[in-house]
User: Fold 2OG-Fe(II) oxygenase from Mesobacillus maritimus.
Amino acid sequence: MDGKEVLLNEQALKEPTIFNHNGNKIITEDREINIIAKLEEPLIVVLGNVLSNEECDELIQLSKDRLERSKIGSVREIDDLRSSSSMFFQEGENEVVARIEKRVSQIMNIPVEHGEGLQILNYQIGQEYKAHFDFFKSTSQAATNPRISTLVMYLNDVEYGGETYFPKLGLSVSPQKGMAVYFEYFYNDQTLNELTLHGGAPVIIGDKWAATQWMRRKKVN
Ligand SMILES: O=C(O)CCC(=O)C(=O)O
Ligand SMILES: [Fe+2]
Assistant:
């Protein structure tokens, strides 16, 4: 190989991803998910038809009396970074949660047992989640079982604001009921992981409901 060929090969070589779906659909046990848009590296995938309208409404109903001010980090502290309210479901807590966990595990290609409980988030006007990384600091205790990927599902349409934005990539995803955005940050190349910096933009009109699934490298507990 001459120098030029080596260079071309290096450029063509992408790191393997956890997400393993090609084509325009993901066929899970109980639903066909649409692959709408992809950024290749770091991999970010916009997905449609992840949840039915009824599932979105049910998740809101089941969580709305259990919301508390959101916390951050592996030690769960209150911080200005995040002004939303949220709650976690226990794994398999009820029928709809169990069904969604199973589907999400097939989308994310990671066993259900590696998931932190499904988290429901509610943002009122002006509330936001400032730009952050979902992975833990390498110095934190939780880093022995790192977070590797995230799926943010939208449970309602937000009239204005509330986008999930990736400031280093100039990308933002508007919340649409039943749709989701997937991203992963388990690359060997740490610069790729750092490109997954993201936030939930302030809601300007309406309110925003979302469900987040964070996956870990190993089983949780
Ligand atoms: O609300 C959003 O759009 C983003 C949520 C998020 O970043 C998270 O739950 O980690
Ligand atoms: Fe996040």
